[in-house]
UniProtKB/TrEMBL annotation, chain A:
Coiled-coil annotated residue ranges, if any: none
GO cellular component, one term: cytosol
Pfam families reported in the protein's UniProt record: B56
Species this chain originates from: Branchiostoma belcheri (Amphioxus)
Region (Disordered): 1-49, 466-504
Protein name: Serine/threonine protein phosphatase 2A regulatory subunit
GO molecular function, one term: protein phosphatase activator activity
Gene Ontology biological process terms in this record: signal transduction
Gene coding for it: LOC109482551
InterPro entries: ARM-like, ARM-type_fold, PP2A_B56
TrEMBL record, chain B:
Official protein name in the record: Serine/threonine-protein phosphatase 2A 65 kDa regulatory subunit A alpha isoform-like isoform X2
UniProt cross-references to Pfam families, sorted A to Z: HEAT, HEAT_2, PPP2R1A-like_HEAT
Signal peptide residue numbers: none
Placement of HEAT repeats on the sequence: 12-50, 89-127, 166-204, 205-243, 244-282, 283-321, 371-409, 410-448, 527-565, 566-596
Any one GO cellular component localisation term in the record: protein phosphatase type 2A complex
């Protein structure tokens, strides 16, 4: 028969075909979603700025800005090559002109500059081509119009950084609406663009005092949408990086608004699913931890809510993420005040005790490394009477059970430090270990018994319920709910059963 | 009541509450999930006076636990003493409706809506509505988003003064500073519109809706499109043109593709809501625009709706609208595919899955003239999904023009799909074989497709071989046992000699499904000897499948055949060296003996 179905005997292995199934990898680039972009404007080359007489330069500058507002289709790589080249050259010229020239930023120029920038960079981001984006496997989708966009961003930065730049004039054009659109661009998949945006936004935050609160609020909204609605936003890492330096500059005492941001936004950000996807964990998590630690260095009283927050969002299944959490906890412990440590030691070390006995050796190892940290050690020593009883049972157990020899060795070291710290307590704990376990087992049994009895109750209830099907379910579908005495007597056989069960 | 009083000493609340406080989250979660049991043990009075306050005070647990709690409380009305006491459930649910985690909040809102129905009108005004107002003016956005979902349930049952207050609160939420709240309001606007009096719908809600539909955030605007479906279906037709259409038209041309996508996705619902007149004048051109959209996502969503849109068109304008507005687009958006990329595969396959449905609407002549060329091109598409979608909908066309016009193009398409490298594609086409066989007729089938069906029997993927055997059964059902004996059976039997044991097993699998449809005669004279011979196969897997086959087809034979032929064979297999062979042999003997 045909090739595919013929010599089947040598094709039993279904995996031989896999190569042909998987699509060849290709560098993707994507155009922005520009709806009904105006086409057909043909660019006419203008004379070079440097060749124009000084009197005409200003007018030519504005003309060039207007020319550069025309947007080209870069998905069609062959269309209008001449126009694209003219624009590219003009943009480069504009960059040089505002970098080198003095006094070129007159008041009339501002609206033209902002218009040019806006018409180039503001666009609806296209649908993401790979919804399951994995930074380790996939290349990011790159912006097709980058050859122009890059120079526009370059120009934007030079404009903001120019010694002639006057925020008091620019604020008429770089307003809330402008910033809002700028922030939306942080979702761009192209890391080059996000990098430029980061610097641009940072400059705007620095120069426009009137926009600061607005920018912070909008970043809040982006984060909250990311945490609670979409779980997808490409620029979270970049925004956190900017925030890191913003937090650094907060005046003391911290405003309530800033504290709320920490507790209600930054801490919940830890639970984002994609947190673990951001590989190298650098882009996102390091920034996040940095922001949190910044806050704690400013105001130590925030330690307790922060640590409790982290414990609340502690990863349940993702070991990789758990390692990152432990890293952040150690950073916090590095700056913690002893008075604050006392307040959180109990819940914190209960969690650490769980991590230490994690079957995932990286998690266990990361937690055990805390004992190499001198400051942390000193804190543990000061509070050994609280921490040792929490840590001991798990340490003792895994010193015998853990599959990984490195972990066992580390655990022995920790037990040894405990012994040296407080040998009396250590001996007591060792002696009581068995008795404690038995107590736990007994408690466990008691709970089982209790629930068995309660379940019996429920089964009885349902059985009784079935017997009185005629009663409308809305009013009395549960036996004890009976409001009327008539219903109460109907369920009478129900309490003796309970008695009998309890008597046993 | 007596029951619950006497239980006091037996179920000390402390013990139960201890369970709800257990250090282990999993145990806490288990306890919460059995909260109704605990309440049952406590009785209605103590549930009200002790358990509910405890729950209200201690809401700062893991989200997982809170979610379970929110769900439980929705079913708690009987456990607290029914309608007159149900309002005691409001405080814990109110707290739950303000937590950070969305799923918990949503569940709390769901439960609140549920128990709102259990409230008397007086309680609704005294307890429920104040809760809605508190939430709606909460500090943090979470309580305000939750509030949005709580307007439509109490609204119809309260006094006009309270209604006015509720409307004011809803208006504030629509203009909230936080986009999350505006999204929630836009999302719930549709259901609120349904319970609102017409005059207020026009005077209050429509302006709010228009605002949300032009919100600065596209995520808000697209939710307004959803609300549009409900709003348009409630408004009298004469108001639609002025109140709804301008906004809807803007949405269809929104600069964000997400909003346009939403319009495309809801298009047929919108079409039904606005009625035939506006469809003719406004929606048809808008639909054309969406089919030509610059984003593939939008085109695919629109393409998916082509058939339904056309079906919904009023009969008098249907044909002209399709011919002038739709078909040119379909062609356009389709020819574009030939040029370009990956993403557009979705557009093509969306179109392919519905385009055949147009032919019954357009009738024979138009189908032949306009649709047929499109089908033919799509049948040659590089993307298997497109071809498959066309083939899977052949019956629509067959009813209108018969399949002969297509058969010449069908064949290569089928053959290619039959040999596709992806087994899922092969599987899909196999599943259409019985249908195709019926449409194309026996002669065509014998000539062109029979060989394909046989080839699948020796595919290297088990799922395909399995599907191929089942396919044979359906074919025999269609063409009869005489056809089977001449065209199928010889080939199946021949495979029993194949050097590859998998193929020999396939013979057995075929016998399993064919025995019944081919009838006893063929089975006894042709299949049985082959099966019995395979009992001495060198490969144990073949041998124990013989046992399984004999067990399966044993019921067809009379006692004599069973005793003289099946039993001896199975007895021999029962003494096989291989453990599995022995097992299946004794199993088969057992079944056959029982049957006898």
């Amino acid at each position: 028969m045909s090739a595919a179905t013929g010599p089947v005997t040598d094709k039993i292995d279904p995996f031989s075909k896999k190569q042909s199934v998987k699509k060849p990898k290709q560098k993707r680039s994507q155009a922005s979603s520009r709806y009904k972009a105006k086409g057909g404007t043909e660019l006419v080359p203008l004379p070079q700025l440097k060749d124009a007489p000084p009197a005409e330069q200003h007018e030519l500058f504005i003309k060039k800005l207007q020319q550069c507002s025309v947007v080209f289709d870069f998905m069609d790589s062959v269309s209008d090559l001449k126009g694209k080249e003219i624009k590219r050259a003009s943009l480069n010229e504009l960059v040089d002109y505002i970098t080198a020239g003095r006094g070129v930023l007159t008041e009339q120029v501002y609206p033209e500059v902002v218009k040019m920038i806006a018409s180039n960079i503001f666009r609806t981001l296209p649908p993401s081509e790979n919804t399951e984006f994995d930074p380790e496997e996939d290349d990011p989708t790159l912006e097709a119009s980058w050859p122009h966009l890059q120079i526009v961003y370059e120009f934007f930065l030079r404009f903001l950084e120019s010694p002639d730049f006057q925020p008091s004039i620019a604020k008429k054009y770089i307003d809330q609406k402008f910033v809002l659109q700028l922030l939306e661009l942080f979702d761009s998949e192209d890391p080059r663009e996000r990098d430029f945006l980061k610097t641009v936004l940072h400059r705007i935050y620095g120069k426009f005092l009137g926009l600061r609160a607005f920018i912070r609020k909008q970043i809040n909204h982006i984060f909250l949408k990311f945490i609670y609605e979409t779980e997808h936003f490409n620029g979270v890492g970049e925004l956190l990086e900017i925030l890191g330096s913003i937090i650094n500059g907060f005046a003391l005492p911290l405003k309530a608004e800033h504290k709320q941001f920490l507790i209600k936004v930054l801490i919940p950000l830890h639970k984002a699913k994609s947190l673990s996807l951001y590989h190298a964990q650098s882009a996102f998590f390091t920034q996040l931890a940095y922001c949190v630690v910044q806050f704690l260095e400013k105001d130590a009283t925030l330690t307790e809510p922060v640590v409790r927050g982290l414990l609340k969002f502690w990863p349940k299944t993702c070991s990789q993420k758990e390692v990152m959490f432990l890293g952040e906890i150690e950073e916090i412990l590095d700056v913690i005040e002893p008075s604050q440590f006392v307040r959180i030691q109990e819940p914190l070390f209960k969690q650490i005790s769980k991590c230490v006995s994690s079957p995932h050796f990286q998690v266990a190892e990361r937690a055990l490394y805390f004992w190499n940290n001198e400051y942390v050690m000193s804190l543990i020593e000061e509070n050994s009477n609280v921490i040792m009883p929490i840590m001991f049972p798990n340490l003792y157990r895994i010193s015998k059970e853990h599959w990984n020899q490195t972990i066992v060795a580390l655990v022995y070291n920790v037990l040894k430090t405990f012994m040296e710290m407080n040998s009396k307590l250590f001996d007591e704990l060792t002696a009581n270990y068995k008795a404690e376990r038995q107590k736990e087992r007994k408690k466990e049994k008691e709970r089982e018994e209790l629930w068995k009895k309660l379940d019996g109750l429920e089964i009885n209830a349902t059985v009784n319920n079935k017997e009185v099907k005629s009663v409308p379910p809305t009013s009395t579908n549960t036996p004890v709910a009976g409001g009327s005495p008539a219903v109460g007597t109907r369920y009478a056989p129900y309490s003796p059963t309970a008695h009998r069960l309890m008597a046993k | 009541m007596a029951a619950s009083d006497s239980d006091d000493s037996l179920y000390p609340i402390a013990v139960l509450i201890d369970e709800l406080r257990n250090e282990d989250v999993q145990l806490r979660l288990n306890s919460i999930k059995k909260l109704s049991t605990i309440a049952l043990a406590l009785g209605v009075e103590r549930t009200r006076s002790e358990l509910i306050p405890f729950l209200t005070d201690t809401i700062y647990d893991e989200d997982e636990v809170l979610l379970a709690l929110a769900e439980q409380l929705g079913n708690f009305t009987p456990l607290v003493g029914g309608q007159e006491h149900v309002h005691c459930l409001l405080p814990p649910l109110e707290s739950l409706a303000t937590v950070e985690e969305t799923v918990v909040r949503d569940k709390a809102v769901e439960s609140l809506r549920k128990i709102a129905a259990d409230h008397s009108t007086a309680d609704l005004e005294a307890h429920f509505v104040p809760l809605v107002k508190r939430l709606a003016s909460g500090d943090w956005f979470t309580s305000r988003t939750s509030a949005c979902g709580l307007f439509s349930v109490p609204y119809p049952r309260v006094s006009s003064q309270v209604k006015a207050e509720l409307r004011t609160h809803f208006r504030n939420l629509c203009g909230d500073d936080t986009p999350m709240v505006r999204r929630a309001a836009a999302g719930k606007m549709g259901e609120f519109a349904k319970v609102l009096e017409l005059e207020y719908l026009k005077s209050d809600l429509i302006p709010l809706w228009t605002n949300l539909a032009s919100d600065e955030q596209d995520s808000v605007r697209l939710l307004a499109v959803e609300a549009c479906v409900s709003i348009a279906s409630i408004l009298p037709r004469e108001d639609l043109e002025s109140l709804v259409m301008p906004t809807l038209k803007n949405a269809a041309e929104d600069k964000s593709w997400r909003v346009r996508y939403m319009v495309a996705d809801k298009f047929t619902e919108l079409q039904v809501a606005v009625g035939p007149e506006i469809t003719k004048s406004d929606l048809a051109p808008a639909f054309q625009g969406l089919l030509k959209d610059c984003e593939a996502e939008v085109r695919a969503a629109a393409a998916n709706k082509v058939k339904e849109f056309c079906e919904n068109l009023p009969a008098d304008v249907r044909e002209t609208t399709i011919m002038t507005n739709i078909l040119p687009c379909v062609k356009w958006s389709f020819f574009l595919q030939e040029l370009v990329t990956d993403a557009n595969q979705h557009v093509k396959s969306a179109l392919a899955s519905v385009i055949m449905g147009l032919s019954p609407i357009l009738g024979k002549d138009n189908t032949v003239e306009h649709l047929l060329p499109l089908f033919l091109i799509m049948l040659k598409d590089e993307c298997p999904e497109v071809r498959l979608n066309i083939i899977s909908n052949l019956d629509c066309v067959n009813r209108v023009i018969g399949i002969t016009q297509l058969s010449q193009s069908l064949l290569p398409a089928i053959v290619e799909l039959a040999e596709d490298t992806k087994w899922r594609v092969r599987l899909a086409i196999i599943e259409y074989m019985p249908l195709l066989a019926g449409q194309l007729g026996q002669d065509f089938f014998d000539e062109k497709l029979n060989n394909l069906c046989m080839a699948w029997l020796v595919d290297h993927v088990y799922a395909i071989r399995e599907a191929a055997t089942n396919n044979l059964k359906k074919l025999v059902e269609k063409f009869g046992s005489e056809w089977a004996t001449s065209k199928i059976v010889p080939k199946v039997v021949a495979m029993a000699q194949d050097p590859n044991y998998l193929h020999r097993m396939t013979t057995l699998f075929c016998v399993n499904v064919l025995a019944e449809v081919c009838g006893v005669e063929v089975t006894v004279s042709v299949f049985l000897p082959v099966v019995l011979k395979l009992a001495s196969d060198a490969v144990p897997n073949v041998r124990f499948n013989v046992a399984k086959t004999l067990q399966k087809i044993g019921g067809l034979f009379d006692a004599e055949t069973v005793n003289s032929q099946l039993k001896p064979c199975l007895d021999k297999l029962k003494t096989d060296q291989d453990f599995d062979v022995k097992y299946y042999a004794s199993e088969a003997i057992l079944v056959l003996t029982e049957a006898a």
